[in-house]
Amino acid sequence: MWVLTPAVFAGKLLSVFRQPLSSLWRSLVPLFCWLRATFWLLATKRTKQHLVLRGPDETKEEEEDPPLPTTPTSVNYHFTRQCNYKCGFCFHTAKTSFVLPLEEAKRGLLLLKEAGMEKINFSGGEPFLPDRGEYLGKLVRFCKVELRLPSVSIVSNGSLIRERWFQNYGEYLDILAISCDSFDEEVNVLIGRGQGKKNHVENLQKLRRWCRDYRVAFKINSVINRFNVEEDMTEQIKALNPVRWKVFQCLLIEGENCGEDALREAERFVIGDEEFERFLERHKEVSCLVPESNQKMKDSYLILDEYMRFLNCRKGRKDPSKSILDVGVEEAIKFSGFDEKMFLKRGGKYIWSKADLKLDW
């Protein structure tokens, strides 16, 4: 309507000057009143767009709606830092030996479910170390049977898994991810995955068979670093046929694998972005490949440590929140540094329930 104001004003002004001089002054008075009212209304409307009345003598700029709380859709729970391997680039090292009592861990998982968790991933350290995998098995069963989570998964180096564990707990597990960085056993030893006479690659193939036998979706995680960046794993990955092959770029985390307080010195493992891209290009025919550069990985995971604290990696180190057991999920997650947009961009949400994967067992 304000676009019409000049035209209306011109019309009124013209009608005024067509009148005799005696009535001119009488016509100008209402004209000036009309002008004053018009521009006052315009100014009031614009002011209301920027100001919100708070009281008779107080105004403030209009505030945006507060952001919605972050939903912990997918959580990675590193309930132990202890490990039987010594991978040189490890970014979650054995700085403590603490493991929560089982019932406290269950209480925390229930809090996460109530806050919206759909997927839990158990990791370490090596998650099969505490109580020879029984602690882990009980958590897996609790999450699937009592919490009814759509997806329960594990990341393990695979060296401590026995077939009996599959017999007892396999039905409750959706995905087992095995870390394998090379199909050359000498390279695995250089990286820190050597276990004396045990062959990491042979064990990987045995675990693949067990996953098929006990109907658990099989996944492979590989960290691309200075010792395997030139390797071609195409044929071996195709033969194992995992549902996903997650390929990470070696990442430095201060206090974990670099810096004064670190238990590892991973600088010698680091590769550049171009080298990582060349590795991906070499494996472009592998349909299950899911690449994650450092940029995608750093802030796109919700990580809980052994005390059930969210770990914020935005500053290149792991700064812990308060434990969800003490302050609840909604308060603790504010300090997680989680980038939900990057989580979705990197494909963090996918078909993660074995019931929906429709695999040919």
TrEMBL record:
Which PROSITE patterns did the record assign? RADICAL_SAM
What InterPro entries has UniProt attached to this entry? Aldolase_TIM (IPR013785), Elp3/MiaA/NifB-like_rSAM (IPR006638), RSAD2 (IPR026372), RSAD2/Viperin_antiviral (IPR051196), rSAM (IPR007197), rSAM_sf (IPR058240)
* Subcellular compartments: Endoplasmic reticulum membrane; Lipid droplet
Read off the SMART domains from this record. Answer: Elp3
Query: Pfam families annotated for this entry?
Result: Radical_SAM
Q: Name one GO cellular component term.
A: endoplasmic reticulum
Q: Could you tell me the keywords of this UniProt record?
A: 4Fe-4S, Antiviral defense, Endoplasmic reticulum, Immunity, Innate immunity, Iron, Iron-sulfur, Lipid droplet, Lyase, Membrane, Metal-binding, S-adenosyl-L-methionine
Q: Where is the Radical SAM core domain?
A: 69-289
GO molecular function terms here? 4 iron, 4 sulfur cluster binding; lyase activity; metal ion binding
Cofactor(s) needed, names only, are: [4Fe-4S] cluster
Q: How does it sit in the membrane?
A: Peripheral membrane protein
Q: Which reaction does it catalyse?
A: CTP + AH2 + S-adenosyl-L-methionine = 3'-deoxy-3',4'-didehydro-CTP + 5'-deoxyadenosine + L-methionine + A + H2O + H(+)
Set out the biological process GO terms recorded for this chain's protein: CD4-positive, alpha-beta T cell differentiation; defense response to virus; innate immune response; negative regulation of protein secretion; negative regulation of viral genome replication; positive regulation of immune response; positive regulation of T-helper 2 cell cytokine production; positive regulation of toll-like receptor 7 signaling pathway
The yes or no answer to whether the keyword Hydrolase is present is: no
Q: Where is the signal peptide?
A: none
What the entry lists under NCBIfam families is as follows: viperin, viperin_w_prok
**Which family does the similarity line name?**
Belongs to the radical SAM superfamily. RSAD2 family.
Per UniProt, subunit arrangement is: Homodimer. Interacts with IRAK1 and TRAF6. Interacts with FPPS. Interacts with HADHB. Interacts (via C-terminus) with VAPA/VAP33 (via C-terminus).
**What is the protein's name according to its record?**
S-adenosylmethionine-dependent nucleotide dehydratase RSAD2
Q: Which gene encodes it?
A: RSAD2
